[in-house]
Design goal:
CATH topology: Rossmann fold
Largest sheet: 5 strands, parallel
Structural class: alpha/beta
Helix content: 40-55%
Number of strands: 5
Number of domains: 1
Number of helices: 4
Length: 165
């Protein structure tokens, strides 16, 4: 069982990686150092590297995201907006697009790590909420586009407890 977890070095992603490894999966845990997922060629290269390293792909977890920073609506910049949409939506799409053929071959699965922010308006996190709402719709689009060979699921965790620094 072979998995690629984008955002695999972050809080939620690293927990997913640990769980998968504990269940016997071989995992490529991709973080920021592995490429900028908002850059299409880097997103594609990450998938191809993971497939080569793993010898195929059975699971893709899109847990990468950027732009979770509180800002008043009047203070959100274009850079804030681009950061939120870059890895979260654009990255998820192009990583999935590249992984699709490999996942079809293995009848694999994609898990999109969504967020309750997609469904709840948080005024201090406008860009994040909008990006997560777009990702939630992308989950549904991909589920239809890749069925029946590939299952696509979205998980929207609520608040996540982390160890204090």
């Amino acid at each position: 069982m072979r998995a690629l977890v984008t955002g695999g070095t972050g809080r939620i992603g690293s927990a997913i990686v640990a769980r998968l490894q504990g269940e016997g999966w071989t995992v490529v845990a991709a973080g920021r150092a592995d490429g900028d997922l908002a850059a299409v060629e880097q997103a594609r290269a990450l998938v191809e590297r993971a497939v080569e390293e793993l010898g195929g792909l059975d699971l893709l977890v899109n847990a990468a995201g950027e732009g979770f920073a509180p800002r008043a609506v009047t203070e959100v910049t274009e850079a804030d907006w681009d950061a939120a949409f870059g890895a979260t939506v654009k990255g998820s799409f192009f990583v999935t697009q590249t992984a699709a053929a490999h996942l079809r071959a293995s009848h694999g699965c994609i898990v999109m790590i969504e967020d309750v922010a997609a469904y709840q308006p948080w005024p201090s996190f406008a860009a994040h909420c909008a990006a997560k709402a777009a990702q939630a719709m992308l989950t549904r689009v991909l589920a239809r586009a890749l069925a029946p060979e590939v299952r696509v699921c979205g998980v929207a965790p609520g608040p996540v407890a982390v160890e204090p620094d």
